[in-house]
From TrEMBL:
One of its GO terms (cellular component) is plasma membrane. This is Cytochrome-c oxidase. It comes from Uabimicrobium amorphum. InterPro entries: Caa3_sub_IV, Cyt_c_oxidase_su4_prok. Keywords: Cell membrane, Membrane, Transmembrane, Transmembrane helix. The lineage of its organism: Bacteria, Pseudomonadati, Planctomycetota, Candidatus Uabimicrobiia, Candidatus Uabimicrobiales.
Length: 111
């Protein structure tokens, strides 16, 4: 049995697609830098994370060729991403609690 018999042929991705994805990544990186200059309040981190997720998805799908891999890879990446989201949420919850408690202690000290 030949090695090629075990794998499906992936479609050829043209240079135009790679250039389009690269340009999208440049635009998204510029957007990230521009967002850093604005005060979006509590949404700053969320917007930056959203742009980062879009950029990561583009890199994974096109430059790492995950778009043409079997569905099991998609599920593994999805589970890993969801675990990371849970960890980030718990981190923000802990940071918020610590910040809130720190403000309470400072308020008690000043009274």
């Amino acid at each position: 049995m030949d090695h090629a018999e075990h794998h499906e042929e992936h479609p050829m991705i043209g240079y135009g697609t790679y250039i389009s994805v690269w340009l999208a990544l440049l635009i998204l990186t510029s957007l990230t830098v521009a967002i850093a200059g604005f005060d979006l309040g509590q949404y700053t981190t969320a917007v930056a994370m959203l742009v980062a997720v879009v950029k990561t998805t583009l890199v994974g799908l096109y430059f790492m060729h995950l778009r043409y891999e079997p569905k099991v890879f998609h599920y593994m990446i999805l589970v890993t991403f969801l675990i990371m989201v849970v960890i980030v949420i718990f981190t923000f919850i802990d940071d918020y609690r610590f910040s809130y408690l720190n403000h309470e202690v400072q308020a008690e000290v000043h009274h």
